[in-house]
Amino acid sequence: MKTTGGWDRITEEITRDLGKQTDQAFANVEHALQQAGGKGWEQVYKVRCYVVTLNMEGAEHLVRNLRKYCPNHQPLLTAVGVQSLAFPDMRIEIEVAAHLGS
Questions:
Q1: Are residues 83 and 40 in contact, defined by beta-carbon separation less than 8 angstroms?
Q2: If we measure between CA atoms, which residue out of 77, 81, 53 comes closest to residue 63?
Q3: CA gap 81, 26 in Å, rounded
């Protein structure tokens, strides 16, 4: 199980734009999975997203990224609307479960 948000891995800056933050969060998950010895999103079978003020805009960004990172499979997706996350500008946090074994 791995959890990450939409901050820049190098600068640790968090953009306020939900689309860019979602894109970065998905990229951060890919990076974290690869650092753990996995292949990335192709091994993910479950995704849980916490989104501040979840609406259609947020859902569209999630679906767009899932189609990009998971073109050959559809992991289980749960999206939960929350009031706030760990940092004031943070609008999305993604938790995934992936099968990293052989």
A1: no
A2: 77
A3: 18
Q: And the tokens for 92?
A: 């999305």
Helix (H, G, I), strand (E, B) or coil at 90: coil
**Residue 78, class by beta-carbon neighbours within 10 Å (0-12 exposed, 13-18 middle, 19+ buried)?**
exposed
Beta strands in the chain (DSSP E): 2-5, 44-52, 76-82, 92-98
Assess contact for 85 and 91: CB atoms under 8 A.
Answer: yes
pLDDT in tens, 11-31: 999 999 999 999 999 999 999
pLDDT in tens, 33-75: 999 899 999 999 999 999 998 999 999 999 999 999 999 999 9
